[in-house]
């Protein structure tokens, strides 16, 4: 059996190696010649899986180690008897932690604000549950859900009136509820004075040119973009107008990527009617050096939000992601690098980021209420 896989998928050989030959290639530049003799194709979101890639190939299984599937031509796969599978929810926790890290970096306490979520699937739904558990006033827009599934559903206009808006919708271009350019100039101008807008779902759900125009006119808006339109050749001018920018890595925690690998491995095993022989439990040891402490003065004299800021920064320095992207833009402007290639390189060589649940927190004085609050974030308090 021949398996062609994106080279950025972690532990791909450890999981799939016993099934046959594993060939690892750059995901964005895979060609029809690369996959012609493959039996299975394992990708991430940068690979467009369509007739141009698969026509004439032996591929009978396609797995994407991501929650999104807009890069898969599902109709073509179904029509040609190619079994396909995604990894829904694999990196939801990673993206939610990105949102918390962004808010902490911008010094935005989410507890007293009205928080809006656009798209309440695996990622937005998890963010919603955590915010509600922390006592936050949350409103949600998702036309694919009912009030029975989410009692805080409301209109898009109501969500756009919130203090913080976090977008987690997939890219949908057809059907009753398309998300392409869901936020255009009209919607962006509805944002309240000083609003925070975060997008770590799909770039084209916001009209990026309209966003640039609005940010040029309004300097009160605080925008965080992890996803762009288009990628990897994003607007460097737009990057200059956002407070935090990153190269589509919100879901790139090591744990999230590993979850995706395991889910697709299990899907291929089912496709082949084989019992799994590998697991994350067997392949990934517990994290070493996972003890977190903060300054005693912060512990004793600050509120829980300030404690969370200190802890999250120790685990995930989101400012470093922003700095790397802006440094790349500077190099590209000077003609030293090709920006699109550098964008992909930042993703390929992204530093290992572990999720909060891997860490134990030591605090000298903490109430049971605050301990539960930190545990909602994922930390283990000892």
UniProtKB/TrEMBL annotation:
EC top class, in one word? oxidoreductase
| SUPFAM superfamilies listed in its UniProt record | Formate/glycerate dehydrogenase catalytic domain-like (SSF52283), NAD(P)-binding Rossmann-fold domains (SSF51735)
* Catalytic machinery residues: 202, 231, 248 (proton donor)
Q: Which controlled-vocabulary keywords does the entry list?
A: Cytoplasm, NAD, Oxidoreductase, Pyridoxine biosynthesis
Q: Does the keyword field hold Cytoplasm?
A: yes
Any GO MF annotation of the entry = 4-phosphoerythronate dehydrogenase activity
The EC code for this enzyme is 1.1.1.290
Any idea which positions bind substrate? 45, 66, 252
**Could you confirm whether the keyword Magnesium appears in this record?**
no
Q: Where in the cell is it found?
A: Cytoplasm
Annotated membrane-spanning segments are: none
Matching InterPro entries, A to Z? D-isomer_2_OHA_DH_cat_dom, D-isomer_DH_CS, D-isomer_DH_NAD-bd, Erythronate-4-P_DHase, Erythronate-4-P_DHase_dimer, NAD(P)-bd_dom_sf, PdxB_dimer_sf
Q: Where does NAD(+) bind?
A: 142, 169, 226, 251
Q: In which pathway does it act?
A: Cofactor biosynthesis; pyridoxine 5'-phosphate biosynthesis; pyridoxine 5'-phosphate from D-erythrose 4-phosphate: step 2/5
Q: Name one Pfam family in it.
A: DUF3410
Q: How does it assemble?
A: Homodimer.
Sum up the protein's function in the record's words.
Catalyzes the oxidation of erythronate-4-phosphate to 3-hydroxy-2-oxo-4-phosphonooxybutanoate.
Q: What is this protein called?
A: Erythronate-4-phosphate dehydrogenase
User: Which species is listed as the source?
Assistant: Cellvibrio fibrivorans
């Amino acid at each position: 059996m021949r398996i062609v896989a994106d080279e950025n998928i972690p532990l791909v050989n450890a999981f799939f190696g016993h099934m046959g030959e594993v060939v690892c290639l750059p995901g964005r530049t895979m060609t029809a010649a690369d996959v012609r003799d493959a039996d299975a194709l394992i990708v991430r979101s940068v690979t467009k899986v369509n007739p141009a890639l698969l026509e004439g190939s032996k591929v009978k299984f396609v797995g994407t180690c991501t929650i999104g599937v807009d890069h898969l031509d599902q109709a073509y796969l179904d029509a040609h008897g190619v079994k396909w599978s995604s990894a829904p929810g694999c990196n939801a926790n990673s993206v939610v932690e990105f949102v918390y890290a962004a808010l902490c970096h911008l010094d935005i306490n989410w507890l007293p604000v009205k928080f809006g979520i656009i798209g309440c699937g695996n990622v937005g739904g998890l963010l919603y549950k955590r915010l509600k558990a922390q006592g936050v006033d949350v409103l949600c827009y998702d036309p694919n859900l009912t009030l029975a599934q989410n009692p805080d559903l409301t209109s898009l206009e109501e969500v756009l009136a919130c203090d913080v808006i976090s977008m987690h919708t997939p890219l949908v271009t057809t059907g009753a509820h398309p998300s392409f350019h869901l936020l255009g100039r009209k919607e962006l101008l509805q944002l309240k004075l000083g609003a925070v807008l975060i997008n770590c779902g799909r770039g084209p759900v916001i009209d990026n040119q309209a966003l640039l125009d609005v940010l040029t006119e309004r300097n009160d808006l605080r925008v965080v973009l992890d996803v762009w339109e288009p990628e990897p050749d994003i607007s460097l001018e737009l990057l200059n107008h956002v407070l935090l920018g990153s190269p589509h890595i919100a879901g790139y925690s090591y744990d999230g990527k590993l979850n995706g690998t395991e889910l697709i491995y299990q899907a291929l095993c089912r496709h082949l009617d084989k019992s799994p022989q590998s697991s994350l439990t067997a392949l990934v040891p517990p994290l070493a050096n996972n003890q977190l402490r903060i300054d005693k003065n912060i512990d004793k004299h600050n509120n829980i939000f300030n404690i969370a800021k200190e802890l999250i920064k120790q685990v995930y320095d989101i400012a470093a992601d922003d700095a790397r992207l802006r440094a790349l833009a500077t190099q590209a402007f000077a003609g030293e690098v090709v920006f699109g290639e550098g964008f992909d390189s930042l993703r390929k060589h992204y530093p290992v980021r572990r999720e909060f649940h891997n860490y134990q927190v030591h605090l000298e004085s903490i109430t049971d209420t605050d301990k539960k609050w930190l545990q909602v974030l994922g930390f283990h308090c000892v």
